[in-house]
Design goal:
alpha/beta, Rossmann fold, 10 strands, four-stranded antiparallel beta sheet, 9 helices, six-stranded mixed beta sheet
Length: 230
């Protein structure tokens, strides 16, 4: 199985603080990689480096075999979509919120909007609703639909359920599970939730103080065993 993301020797400072130090890992096609660790360990900074929301100081990142510094940032972000902890919801209808990216690229395809809404498990009558009247979980699924409508091959998820109650969080988890199974979408999912790290990914990358502490199968690394240990 080929790598869709390859990260080698990544380093990043924010001010005087070294936030990321010699980060090296890869992600396979259709893999869900959970990035787990405490607040302030560099998880979100790593995610933002992957689609050039933050420029790295050292090291390389390749997406589908191409150095991201050689890619147009706008095109990169179409290929590598991102969903944030708190969904950015704009004034207007759900349909208008989902189609923001399409309009920025000169596209306005109703079929894509309808398909994206269906993929996140919301009914078609939601399209006419005011987005700011939705529940937190519904808003997050609209934000996921906004990312999906651009047809990314990779989805970055920055603690997408941490601001939600347990019921809403599990609905978002089911939405993401559906996308992984039905589309084979590659996902890098930042979380500080142990249950989520254990259950939602194919592998877990554990971070601490800006470095990778461990990476491997959830049943192994979440029990504190190192790679290669029985």
């Amino acid at each position: 199985m080929s790598n869709v993301i390859t990260v080698v020797g990544l380093g990043k400072k924010l001010g005087k603080k070294q936030v990321l130090k010699d980060i090296t890992f890869d992600v396979k096609k259709s893999e869900r990689l959970m990035v787990f660790g405490p607040s302030g360990c560099g998880k979100s900074t790593l995610l933002r480096c992957l689609n050039r929301m933050i420029e790295v100081d050292s090291g390389t990142i390749e997406v589908e075999g191409k150095d991201i510094l050689q890619m147009d940032p706008t095109q990169l972000r179409r290929k590598v979509g991102m969903v944030f902890q708190r969904p950015a919801i704009f004034d207007g209808t759900v349909s208008e919120n989902i189609s923001v990216g399409l309009k920025l690229h000169g596209m306005d395809e109703k079929k894509k909007v309808h398909r994206a809404l269906n993929e996140v498990g919301l009914p078609m009558n939601f399209l006419r609703k005011q987005a700011k009247d939705l529940s937190g979980g519904e808003m997050q699924r609209v934000a996921i639909a906004r990312a999906l409508v651009m047809e990314p091959s990779i989805l970055l998820l920055d603690e997408p359920t941490s601001a939600l109650d347990e019921r809403a969080a599990k609905k978002v988890e089911r939405t993401l599970q559906h996308l992984a199974k039905s589309h084979g979408m590659t996902m890098i999912w930042v979380t500080h939730n142990k249950r989520q790290a254990r259950t939602q990914g194919d592998r877990v990358l554990i971070m601490g103080k800006g470095v990778i502490k461990n990476i491997g199968a959830p049943a192994v690394v979440m029990n504190g065993r190192k790679r290669g240990e029985a």
